[in-house]
Write a structure and sequence with these properties.
This is CoA transferase subunit B. GO terms for molecular function: CoA-transferase activity. This protein has 223 residues and is α/β, with parallel strands linked by helices. It has 4 helices and 14 strands.
Length: 223
């Protein structure tokens, strides 16, 4: 298979679409990397379910204050204007539609925009966290993910076979091979790696890829 983007490069690409001043929640794990790559001149306001708004970068090793952590239990720093509040108030922000963007990981994304990201099935360890609230509370929901599973199966599928996090909630997917929008119950290809043909990309995708207008090269820096 054509060389694919690293997780850092996928996170970088997703960060380019976050507007200055946007209120953003990043899912636990891989999506947290998006915060590292804010474009110059833009400052997102990051929200975490455990009650912090407007936190800053991760502290240097050895300088952590473990009273200041995000929902993934990782140390954060505070910035001028950082706010602290009750867990219930944090979820009121989510459910009240006050977040502009939620960026999450995924096990599967369906062409309808359905998302499965909290359980791998009966043998998996369920870890829904705040995802079910986020996918229906944020104004825009994006996913960052490898294009295929570790054993080569598509993560972009006709219909999810794993337990759903949300229905018809995802609008854009940033993968290791492409940027794909979900419009009208279809995957619409927007960007792909220049070295990968459309047919090769389609062979790794579990539902039809549609083309509307120009498909641009997915170009990212070395990170």
């Amino acid at each position: 298979m054509t060389d694919k983007l690293t997780n850092a490069q996928i996170a970088w690409r997703a960060a380019q679409d976050i507007q200055d001043g946007a209120y953003v929640n990043l899912g636990i794990g891989f999506p947290e990397m998006v915060a590292r790559f804010q474009p110059a001149g833009r400052q997102a306001i990051f929200h975490t379910e455990n009650g912090i708004l407007g936190f800053g970068e991760a502290p240097a090793a050895g300088e952590e204050d473990w009273d200041l952590i995000n929902a993934g239990k990782k140390a954060v720093t505070i910035r001028p204007g950082t706010a602290f509040f009750h867990h219930a108030d944090s979820f009121a922000m989510v459910r009240g539609g006050h977040l502009d963007v939620a960026i999450l990981g995924a096990y599967q994304v369906a062409q309808s925009g359905d998302l499965a990201n909290w359980s791998t099935g009966p043998k998996g360890v369920p870890a829904v966290g705040g995802a079910m609230d986020l996918v229906h509370g944020a104004r825009r929901v994006a996913v960052i993910t490898d294009h295929v599973t570790k054993d080569g199966r598509p993560k972009l599928v006709q219909a999810c076979t794993l337990p759903l996090t949300g229905v018809a909630c995802v609008t854009r997917v940033y993968t290791s091979l492409a940027v794909v929008d979900i419009e009208g119950g279809r995957f619409v290809l927007r960007e792909k790696l220049a070295a990968m043909s459309f047919d090769d990309l389609q062979s790794l995708t579990g539902a039809p890829l549609h083309v509307e207008g120009a498909v641009t090269d997915l170009t990212v820096p070395e990170l």
